[in-house]
Amino acid sequence: MSFLERFERLFCSLALLVTALVLFINVALRYLFNSSTSWAEELIRYLMVWITFIGASLCVRQSAHIRMDFLLGRFSERTKRAVGRVVFGLSALFCLALTWYGVRLTAFSYRMGQTSPALGIPIWAVYLCVPVGSFMAAWQFARLALGLREDRA
Known about the structure:
The chain is an all-alpha fold. The protein has helices spanning 3-33, 40-61, 77-112, 123-127, 129-145.
């Protein structure tokens, strides 16, 4: 298991654990003590966004994304591999475009200096998940497109 895969797994696991813990505490406070924290929902929302983008790369690595292969079943193995490489290449290009726009969005929010309402953290730190996760997914799609690793599915 590579360093990047260990990072993806650890990050998603810890973020999901923190999300569940904060959610449990907030629900307990709300229903048992008729009080809740003002920052919990915001933290959970931001963690879920980060989990989504980092998890997308992990899903590419593990071939866990949904795929439509109804038509591919009629082709030879060689054609299936060729079509798969084209699809992976196009997916890598899409993720690179998303990376580019994510960098622009993050830089813009950095220049604006906007902070989140409840936590007071810089919004660019939240938006940073878009270029980071998209680039990591693009890397995995590119490796599949170039045949540097085999698709597990």
